[in-house]
Input
Amino acid sequence: MVNIIKKNKSVYYQCEECRLIYKDKGWADKCEKWCRENRSCNLNIVKHSINKNTK
Ligand SMILES: [Zn+2]
Output
């Protein structure tokens, strides 16, 4: 299950597997599915995360 994070009145979605955060639930879902099945990161998905911009 993707975690829902509420921060500064915005809602973010976190992949439970790799803990990356996404603004778009669709990407978080994709990431989590990928992480679970492949035990690795998919750069094409990870690049949509916002971890680099926020703490
Ligand atoms: Zn992930």
Summary: Strands lie at 3-7, 10-14, 21-22.
